[in-house]
UniProtKB/TrEMBL annotation:
A cellular component term, taken from the record's GO annotations: cytosol
Cofactor names: Mg(2+); Mn(2+)
GO molecular function, one term: DNA ligase (NAD+) activity
Alphabetical keyword list: DNA damage, DNA repair, DNA replication, Ligase, Magnesium, Manganese, Metal-binding, NAD, Zinc
Domain BRCT span(s) in chain numbering: 610-682
Positions contributing to Zn(2+) binding: C427, C430, C451
Lineage, top ranks: Bacteria, Pseudomonadati, Pseudomonadota, Betaproteobacteria, Rhodocyclales
Family under the similarity heading: Belongs to the NAD-dependent DNA ligase family. LigA subfamily.
Reactions this protein catalyses: NAD(+) + (deoxyribonucleotide)n-3'-hydroxyl + 5'-phospho-(deoxyribonucleotide)m = (deoxyribonucleotide)n+m + AMP + beta-nicotinamide D-nucleotide
HAMAP family xref list: DNA_ligase_A
SMART domains for this protein: BRCT, HhH1, LIGANc
Keyword Transit peptide: no
Full protein name: DNA ligase
Keyword DNA repair annotated: yes
Length: 693
């Protein structure tokens, strides 16, 4: 690139480079404030503006796209397998103190003192006391301050190169702050906060995907994802706790100062740590963390004590593969035995039925437990838990208590197996049918719009911008309307009056009028939007559009059987089954009838089948991430219309479809003067726009 060549705007590449560097530093500072210090410094909109400006510069000058640019967190391709990384300093584990009482701390201190040859008159040893995070150990290698490699622990000698995935973790800086040494390997733990874990599982359930048993498995599974695009959607966190290889940096004298230095480099270091003296100091830390353990936003596996002075650590050395200078001190298992009286179910926001054990009340880890989760039918089968069993119940942090296992020796005679679908063929909340997909762990209520348990969620979806588009009907309002029993199903929205609304909190007459107007406006819609608004599982916007185009009329769709549904492009057996089940449910048909009676209407068309062939002979190239279509979906749609999708841009390419973070293909397309489309443009070509649906 000619650094002094002017572009059309009278701006040189050198200006752009300087501006990009300034933006990168500023964005990194805001990321640090937000993800590490938990103290955001600017509004989201302003942050987005900076980010987009940087993206624009990098699009214009691709050579400026450096590895430490925040725009490059998700960029890696899906891998066939991970490469192996040899750790230059082995990643060791620490021994666990089996005595979970305060005496465990005294035993460790005694071992350290003996090994150091200290006697009773010598001063107390200083320790760094930390949390033992329950996640996945990771080694981050920074060279000249830039993150160049991230590896799992593996067997301690060699691990897996998970750099692309780790780069997506926003709390991990891509470039260190301040004067960074030539080589700095940081060791720490990738983990998931409990709230992020719950949200992730809710999302997984909604998408009919695998539910993770605990935050640790979810974190490990996410980092070992071969597709960094998926890892990027997992809300992972990180805490640094130590060092690996270091070159060109004078080590501080203590572990405490090492962690202070890592924090100053911009790495997340947990605030719950202390420099303590002697066994009493360790025991006090153990007790203090034990008391606040349930209030931490993440799971811990105990605490870790480390001799604070690095010189003493060196003197103490290792026994086999474990350092003599560190130990993990756990907490007593929060487990108890009690009688399983009954199994009931809870219906979640997405209709998932979770079996819940009703227990003879039992005191575990400081609280009385009467209910515990059994997760799903597969878990019940795997553990072979039956009503009437004596069971082990466990509490971990403030997550819902769970039934670990039955005590088979105490089972009195034959107890019947528990089969959720036999016991709950219909939803205990709304009476709709319960179904369980062939490959699914979860049983679900098909009540959808009708089921009170799913009501808020269904209403929010119904009112959404891409569905019925009722402006102003957000979470808070839906909560109030449902809690006050003013709205039960979407039909009730069309029966609302100003009076009922104006009496709600924070809702004056003016906003009530506006909302009513928005509701009124939503009566006139399109068939595609209406189908999407119904919230049929696995029917997203694109499928709703296909269904609308294919069937033309709602009644034709309602009447379609599984075979007829599979004639629609991209509708396979699973989606077809969800649609058929939805319309088979009398409650759902009733709600639809009532909506039509309330004046919800759309133009009905003739069935169109697919418009195959419209794009015959046209070659497309896809680049970047589109807002709603995945690469595969876009490709399938183009091909369904007779088009071809090629991997690289040439003069023969007809259209380049570019999404966010499009790379060199876009630059080349621009250079060749090819037609460049965004997702909306593609949809117009595919004849998928709303007006046609
Ligand atoms: S120090 C040589 N500190 O526990 C000492 N480890 O068996 C290296 N862990 O898998 C470990 N929190 O990932 C250390 N504050 C902490 C830790 C911690 C969690 C994990 C670590 C490793 C295991 C050690």
């Amino acid at each position: 690139m000619d650094l002094f060549a002017e572009d059309g705007r009278g701006e040189t590449a050198a200006d752009a480079a300087a501006r990009a560097a300034a933006l990168r530093a500023e964005i990194a500072r805001h990321d640090h404030a937000y993800y590490v210090l938990d103290a955001p410094t600017i509004p989201d909109a302003e942050y987005d503006r900076l980010f987009r400006e940087l993206q624009a510069i990098e699009r214009a000058y691709p050579a400026l796209r450096s590895a430490d640019s925040p725009t490059q967190r998700v960029g890696g391709k899906a891998l066939a397998q991970f490469a192996t990384v040899r750790h230059r300093v082995p990643m060791l584990s620490i021994s666990t103190e089996t005595d979970t009482e305060a005496s465990g701390a005294f035993a460790f201190d005694a071992r350290v003192r003996r090994a150091l040859g200290l006697d009773e008159d010598d001063a107390a040893v200083a320790y760094a006391a930390e949390l033992k995070f329950d996640g996945l150990a990771i080694s981050l290698r920074y060279e000249d301050g830039v993150l160049v490699q991230a590896a799992t622990r593996g067997d301690g000698e060699t691990g897996e190169d998970v750099t692309s995935n780790v780069r997506t973790v926003k709390a991990i800086p891509l470039r260190l702050l301040g004067e960074a040494p030539p080589v700095l390997e940081v060791r720490g733990e990738i983990y998931l906060r409990r709230d992020d874990f719950e949200r992730l599982n809710a999302r997984q359930a909604e998408a009919g995907e695998k539910i993770f048993v605990n935050p640790r498995n979810a974190a490990a599974g996410s980092i070992r994802q071969l597709d960094p695009g998926i890892a990027a959607r997992r809300p992972l966190s990180f805490y640094a706790y130590g060092l690996g290889e270091v070159a060109g940096w004078t080590l501080p004298a203590t572990q405490t100062e090492v962690l202070d230095a890592l924090a100053a480099f911009g790495l997340p270091v947990c605030g719950h740590r202390a420099q303590v003296r002697g066994a009493e100091g360790l025991a006090a830390f153990h007790a203090r963390i034990g008391a606040l353990r349930d209030t931490l936003p993440f799971d811990i596996d105990g605490v870790v004590y480390k001799v604070d002075a690095l010189a003493l650590q060196q003197q103490l050395g290792f026994v086999t593969r474990e350092p003599r200078w560190a130990v993990a001190h756990k907490y007593p298992a929060q487990e108890a035995v009690t009688l399983l009286r009954d199994i009931e179910v809870q219906v979640g926001r997405t209709g998932a039925l979770t079996p819940v054990a009703r227990l003879e009340p039992v005191f575990v880890g400081g609280v009385t437990v009467t209910n515990a989760t059994l997760h799903n039918q597969d878990e019940i089968d795997r553990k072979d838990v039956r009503i009437g069993d004596w069971v082990i119940v466990r509490r971990a942090g403030d997550v819902i208590p769970e039934v670990v296992a039955p005590i088979l020796e105490r089972r009195g005679g034959e107890l019947p197996r528990f089969v959720l679908l036999d016991r709950f063929p219909t939803c205990p909340v709304c009476g709709s049918h319960v179904v369980r997909g062939e490959d699914e762990a979860v049983a679900r209520c098909t009540g959808g719009l009708f089921c009170p348990a799913q009501r808020k969620q269904a209403l929010l979806h119904f009112a959404g911008r891409r569905a019925m588009d009722i402006e102003g009907l957000g979470d808070k309002l839906v909560d109030q309307l449902v809690d006050a029993a003013i709205v039960k199903t979407p039909v009730d929205l069309y029966r609302l009056g100003v009076l009922a609304l104006a009496n709600l909190e924070r809702m004056g007459e003016k906003s009530a009028q506006n909302l009513l107007m928005a509701i009124e406006k939503s009566r006139g819609t399109t068939l595609a939007r209406f189908i999407f608004a119904l919230g049929i599982r696995n029917v997203g916007e694109a499928t709703a559009r296909d269904l609308a185009r294919h069937f033309g009329k709602l009644d034709a769709l309602i009447a379609a059987d599984v075979d007829a549904l599979q004639q629609v492009p991209d509708v396979g057996p699973i989606v077809a089954k969800c649609i058929a089940e939805f319309f088979a449910e009398p409650h759902n048909r009733e709600v639809i009838e009532q909506l039509r009676a309330a004046g919800v209407h759309w133009a009905e068309g003739e069935p169109q089948g697919s418009v195959a062939g419209a794009l015959a002979g046209k070659t497309f190239v896809l680049t970047g991430t589109l807002p709603t279509l995945s690469r595969d979906e876009a490709k399938a749609r183009i091909e369904a219309r007779g088009g071809k999708v090629a991997g690289s841009v040439s003069k023969k390419t007809h259209y380049v479809v570019a999404g966010a973070e499009a790379g060199s293909k876009l630059d080349k397309a621009q250079a060749l003067g090819l037609a460049i489309l965004d997702e909306d443009g593609l949809r117009v070509l595919l004849n998928e726009t709303d007006t046609n649906a």
